[in-house]
Amino acid sequence: MRTSQKYLKLFPKGLPTVIAVVSCLLLIMPAKAHAEQKKKIGLNNATFETVIKEIEKVFSVNFTYDAAMKQLQQKVSLQQKERTLAEVLSELAKQVNVKFIRAGNLIGIQEKTALYQLSAYESPAVAGAPPFLLKGRIIDEKKNIAVANATIHVKDSKTYTTSDEDGNFSIEVLQGDVLEITSVGYAAKEVTIGNSNEIIINLSSSENQLNEVVVTALGIKKERAKINYATQEVKGESLQKAKEANVISSLTGKVAGLTVVNKSTLYENQDVRVRGEATLVVIDGVPTNTNFWNINADDIESVTVLKGTAAAALYGSLGVNGAIMITTKKGKGGSNGLEVSFSSTNQFQAGYIAIPKTQQEYGMGWSGYYAYIDGQGGGGWYDNYGYVWGPKLNVKDPNTASGYAEYPQYNSPYNPDSLYTFTQAGYTGQSHYKPMPWVSRGTNNLKNFLRNEFLTTDNISVAGKTDRTDYRISASHVYQKGQVPNTHLNSTTLTVAGGLKISDKLRAEATISYNKQYTPNYPSSGYGPSNFFYNILLWMGPDVDIRDMKNYWQPGKEGIQQLTYNYSWYNNPYFMANEYLNSYNTDVITAQANATYSFSKNLNLLVRTGATVNNVSEDTKTPYSFINYGTSKAPFGQYAIDRRGTVRIVSDALLTYQNKFGDFDVTVSAGASSRFDQANGLYSNTVGGLAVPNNYTLANTRDPLNSTNYLNEKQYMSLFGYSDISYKNIVYLSLTGRNDWTTALQKPNNSFFYPSAGLGLMVSQLVKLPSAISWLKLRSAWANVSSDVNPYYTLQTYNRGIRWNGVPSLDVPSTLINPDIRPQTTISQEYGGEIKFLKNRIGLDVTYYRYLNKNFVVDVPLSQASGYSYRRVNADEILKKGIEIVLSGTAIKTKNFQWNIVANYSRIRNTAKSYYGGDSIRNGVKIGERNDVYRGYAWERSPDGRQVFSNGLPQYINQIVNLGYLNPDWEFGIINSISYKNFSLSFTFDGQIGGYMFNGVEAKMYEGGMHPVTANHYRDEAYNGEKTYLVPGVVVTEGEVTYDQQGNITSDTRKFAANETNVNYIDYIFAQYTNGVDESVLYKRTFVKLREVVFSYNIPATLFKKAPFKAASIALTGRNLALFTKVPFMDPESYTGTTLAEPTYRNIGVSVNFTF
Q1: Among candidate residues 950, 960, 964, 1116, the one with its CA nearest the CA of residue 346
Q2: Residues near 394 by Cβ (< 8 Å), separated by ≥ 6?
Q3: Which domains does the chain have, with CATH numbers?
Q4: How confident is the model over 378-401, as pLDDT tens digits?
Q5: Beta-carbon neighbour count of residue 816 at 10 Å?
Q6: pLDDT tens digits, 399-451
Q7: For residue 844, which of 314, 504, 775, 884 sits 20 to 30 Å off, Cα-Cα?
């Protein structure tokens, strides 16, 4: 099916939105930049003051300066000709030792050698002088932007005012008065008034960053000081040098409370959680559904994590677990109104930080025997057994031509007319396969199979800006070569964004992004014959050299029968890589358009709509002779298609009023929103195999096709509002409310209200603190947010039954639906504070939160007499508590050198508060105890911890018990940033402490005989039938023990003696590691990673005089450089359960960036 047809089918309701967005983009594509108007001006040998007055007349501007400035009488000359104002000022600055600071039509003049700023006018008080109205503007001295809401106070008086959004103010003063200017985030300043009635005041940042604008819910921008909940921002530039294929990986460790579980397998989705839960992703104010693969790092301006329920309450149920707010780059221009940027990053694999190691001394087989006949058990000696408990390798034998023991093997020469005789452990056998030396050929099979991974990302963008328009066009491509042969990923993104100032009151913006991801083959990480590492790591002995298997078809049976070492269980890995293909093709369109109309200075209306369309096409080609488990075996191959699509359309309108009433700043807003979600899919596969080999079409099925499809839709309608009130920049109150109506729940439960409130107190503005404390703010927030259920989850339906005499039937499902299901509710409380010490050199942000989650929708057991097994109800309450700490500081700061450190810490605890039906314990968790319990089987032990044996073998407790907790004790990240002149170095450590994991790979390595520990003399003795292995422990001589549901001993009358029974080593290994006792391979998931290192150099602009670009940088990068853990063989971050993830590799590379 054509892509365009899929979009039209998927997007009937959203097509007008896409058309509107595209139309808006076409409207706002900027016209040619208008150059600043040139005017004729010229004076010869005139005073600087005379020239200034002439410029004021010609260009209609006003200058402000100190009348006593000696440069005013300096003689200057301007040749008579047409110039722009900027050209005039530039020429004057070369003749006079001053600098010009321009703010619109107001231009300040400052002596370059002055020790005070332009605004520091000094003039003696004039006795009896009349008051006059002073007009001025407050400017950020570094960014040259307006400072809004600054407080201007005439010292020793009760006269106050504040600057407006453009930084302008007016206040009645006397000549000689002193103005005190304060603004959150800036150093306080005093300015003495001279005789001018206009003034520009430059404020310097106090480096506390509270004046920074933070993107909050609904894309609303607020000053940090006004935010009463925990947030943390990461600048886009920190994600754009040491890149990952999936941009979310670059956020690992950089935000307290944000957990990114990175996967090492190519194209596997990362797990992203905020405070332990999956979270909402918002791009430019529009909620979207994304796995981050379609987001280009070079398009990101910033990422803000709203951590709490209160932070994202305006998003309703979507924001119950906070939100990740992504703000994309917008248009900006260089000196000619145009800026072109190019960046390229290339990273190469440099070894592994975690890769399993196997024993190299024993080959395939069982109990010391192996001889290949047909690989299916047809007379061979354990040639279909699948274990690596066979004869010892590299054993000398003087009776053979090779000098080593020789046995028939899978790739031995075959002669159907001859029988070859061989001897093994005293037994004689015969085979049509010629015996070959039994030696260790595959000492590095896993490494020899894998390739070096490679990742390259390229981006080019064109941006421009004029007085009325701005635009940015960006194109990027990501190519990742996988470790597994014949696997790679391509991802291409094209983004167009623009804005148009239609009038002084109306501005429109739009963005559209198209992303295409394609891989012809990506590896499976699940356990089983379709996984490469299952076939190599666990069950392929070192007697097989993986490189000998590259020719994977049996001679004369190409396309029909693979060549492998075991035809009962294991596939040839090269056959898998080249013939068993899982292709993935996805197209993602994200688009949004908005318009803002300003009715007045205080009142504006925002109207916005956005859409995300995602189409996925997956094909699985299973070749002839593919080996799978049991009934899933596919000797004749299979072809399957999986087509999935999702659509999300979100539209909202927001009317906002802002004003100042005395000492109060008030913002009130009200709005409405709608959201439409659709998910559809079609799955089909051939049945009975392929009629013609290698013809992968559904029509090539042997038996009738198997097909299923689905269509889910859900609609939301919402009303919401919020209010922010601040008093003297000391007290900040925020209130929000939202009501949703959803189609997923039945009336009257389909309507629910979400209130939230926050309160902040700037203590440092209220009281005088010790000089060591720069500032201190306390904050608190509360929210009550509900979340609904999946579509149709509360509707009673019937299942399709079997056909009776060709007549279809319906079955009653096993679960009885309660139509009165209510939404799950989360009541959150959050308390925090932020403090800066030693002139902001050290900062500390601490947050404590408490969530009560109730009304979970669960299926509880029901009496079979009812005809059902379960009933769906609202049940259970879970209490979640956590703490987050962000410690920041500047360790060293000199003129050219600076070292900044940010440390993030987070901890979460979930406990059971109540159970449905009043139960006091469920699944081993009592009320009041942690519910993230790892439950499994454990070894029986004596009270002093010694393992209990019987007949020399370990004994386990015959019930599931609590073994530990899954969640970590705490997580952390440490980011170091060091700069020296044009050089910079950053490096990041992160990890987690505690939390248990089951190392299923290690258990299987023991079972298969591949674990390095199993290569010992006990194995040789076991092959001889000897029982020589003794494990220290005890045996029970009398008595018994009982346990409660959690595995705690309730009574114990046992008596013990030392274990003195030797056993066969193989019997012990199988008893210890293959009977499902989790405790045997249970580890703490503690790890620390050197996650990222970037060493960069900004090439000085002085070197660009003849170059076509105006800025350039180069960086050496590294990712996943080191791992510190006690978990054997595995990367505990990427490994879960018995999955067979690819080994985790380290990457080093180089990144270059040019701006034209």
Answers
A1: 1116
A2: 361, 404, 438, 439, 440
A3: 39-203 (2.60.40.1120), 933-966+996-1084 (no CATH)
A4: 778 998 888 999 999 999 999 999
A5: 17
A6: 999 999 999 999 999 999 999 999 888 889 999 999 999 999 998 999 999 99
A7: 314
